[in-house]
Amino acid sequence: MKIYLVTGGAGFIGSHLVENLIQKHQVIVVDNFDDFYDYSIKLKNLQAATGVSAEIKGDKWEDIECFAQKDIPNFKLYTANIVDRDSIFKIFENHHIDAVIHLAALAGVRPSIQQPLRYEEVNVKGSLNIFEALKNFKVKKLLFASSSSVYGNNAKTPFAESDPVDFSISPYAATKKSGEILAHVYHHLHEIDMLLLRFFTVYGPRQRPDLAIHKFTNLIENGEQIPFYGDGSTARDYTYIDDIIQGILKALDYIEKNENVYETLNLGENQVVKLSEMLASIEATLGKKALLNHLPMQPGDVNLTNADIRKAKKLIGYAPTTDFSTGIQKFVDWYRKNNIFFKP
Ligand SMILES: NC(=O)c1ccc[n+]([C@@H]2O[C@H](COP(=O)([O-])OP(=O)(O)OC[C@H]3O[C@@H](n4cnc5c(N)ncnc54)[C@H](O)[C@@H]3O)[C@@H](O)[C@H]2O)c1
Q1: Dihedral sign computed on CA atoms, order 122, 124, 127, 133
Q2: pLDDT of 300-332, one tens digit each?
Q3: What structural domains does the chain harbor?
């Protein structure tokens, strides 16, 4: 049994990872239940992942603390902010951690344009605190959640890890790129093995409510207008959550079995879906038509993401299997079963 620390473990991707790891290992979750979206959703994520419900103390999200209502031997929840170095160091003092999967971040491109300093604080300074903790407590294995957004409007497709990523078009993308650069410093100076995983638009059950598939589904179900940016020709390489979790687990296995690792890997599906096709697929699955409010393209949004996944296939045996229509059906099934996010 290994001891894994998952930062951001109450979030969308984190809770799925925790659900998987907890079957065989000890899992420590660090999450501050940040108000980027409703913290009650994150509590439900954790409950679904661990079977342990949590209790909230405090009113304002900055003051809340979550306590697991019963202790199970292989799960520990810390309500801590990765920006707070002392709290993070105490957690590393308390546990002999084998590897860290660092997912905690402010995600989302558009809000980063309004709040660049907040994004910089959490995604760069917070990541630096995590890297410092690895260094100080001699933890030698790290997976870092990066993003396809580092490619900006890369003209060459599909996007390969060797492509230049010097032309970010949002503060969010720049913070992820900064995290990658800092990660290399800690690999070089402190011999920490690292895989930097560039996720390509992840979807599926528990998807963040701000992301388009979830947002569109919610608005269509409620008969409300969808803000539809651009002419529908922008396209994304949507990656189903089970495929991402499979990629993370294979990456974990790889860094545990190998020394002197520093690699960047694309985790995508290598299938591109246009915005208009994504909408049509949700409409068909829900059996309802969307009402559209046509708006211009948003600054900061990229036109296309498309992952070249040959390196991840070769290095870690990554093999995504979920086609888009199957993934959408699974998302809608989950959404309808958990209609907790419906507006009254
Ligand atoms: N979902 C995607 O499509 C996608 C794509 C590319 C990259 N990523 C990256 O993957 C990671 C997980 O994304 P997600 O979609 O699950 O997002 P999420 O918002 O659901 O999860 C992030 C978690 O981090 C926590 N968190 C935020 N700030 C924190 C802080 N200061 N201290 C402690 N915890 C904090 C949040 O409360 C949340 O539970 C992020 O790093 C994100 O940038 C996600």
Answers
A1: negative
A2: 788 899 999 999 999 999 999 999 999 999 999
A3: 3-202+240-268+307-320 (3.40.50.720)
